[in-house]
Amino acid sequence: MSSRQQILQSIRRFLPQATDLPDHSGNWIEYPDLYEQFRTTLEFVGGECHLIDSVAEILPLLGDAAAPGKVIVSGVDGIPGTLDLHSVSDPHQLAGVDLAIFPGDLAVAENAGIWVNDAQVKHRVIYFITQDLALVVRQRDLISNLHQAYERIDPAQSSFGCFISGPSKTADIEQSLVKGAHGARTLKVFLLKDS
Questions:
Q1: Which of 45, 73, 162, 181 has its CA 20 to 30 A from that of 20?
Q2: From CA 114, how far away is CA 103, in angstroms rounded?
Q3: What confidence score (pLDDT) does residue 47 get?
Q4: CA neighbor of 191 nearest in space, from 127, 106, 120
Q5: Which pairs with CB-CB distance under 8 Å and at least 24 residues apart come from 23-31?
Q6: Residue 114: which domain range?
Q7: How would you class 81 by CB atoms within 10 Å of its CB: exposed for 0-12, middle for 13-18, buried for 19 or more?
Q8: Res 168 pLDDT > 80
Q9: pLDDT tens figures, 26-50
């Protein structure tokens, strides 16, 4: 018997006892004030949240991220972009994008995660390559927990989807905090009030 076979045989002898998967029909966490929970959690992870009445309020709240001369990619009606994402054939051409602003499908108060996908986005790298990211979510799509989120997400709708919560940061290298290491340096979320 080879050493590989001996190791595998030994592992099989000491496998842990199988246990049932957890039941998903429990009392999931609910928040009495979804906005306050979402805002507090997003700020805790380094993001910023604004409750707005209309898309027209967004540009002034973007500050320097939307200053003249910045390269802006927008997928939100009413917010002008300076670069048309659909005219870009090679995603490498997006390396100079300063601000990307797109709609999010839903927001989760529990972890301040915003679900995004590539249904309206030609190059999904835009969520991660931009310096500043802004996401617009309708207030009615703010929910309490991830269990509710997974009930609403249909993976068959698009080939890509992920939750984004806060700007990218890491302190793995020499224990120094680096923002923008794996994605945007800032994240602003705009919750559009229900009309």
A1: 162
A2: 10
A3: 93
A4: 106
A5: 24/147, 28/144, 28/145, 28/147, 28/148, 29/110, 29/144, 29/145, 30/144, 30/145, 31/109, 31/110, 31/144
A6: 31-192
A7: middle
A8: no
A9: 788 899 999 999 999 999 999 999 9
| Number of domains present in the structure of the chain | 1
pLDDT in tens, 44-65: 999 999 999 999 999 999 988 8
Reading phi first (left if > 0) and then psi (alpha if -120 to 50, else beta), residue 180 is in left
Task: Report yes or no on 21 lying in a domain.
Answer: no
Question: Measuring CA to CA, which residue among 114, 96, 90 is closest to residue 163?
Answer: 114
Say which residue, 171 or 141, is predicted with more confidence: 141
In contact, 110 and 45? CB cutoff 8 Å: no
Give the CATH number, domain containing residue 44: 3.40.50.10420
Q: Does residue 185 belong to any structural domain of this protein?
A: yes
Tell me whether residue 141 is in a domain: yes
Residue 14 included in any domain: no
- What lies within 8 Å, CB to CB, of 107 at 6+ separation is 38, 113, 114, 115, 137, 141, 142, 143, 189, 191
Residue 23 token pair: 């039941």
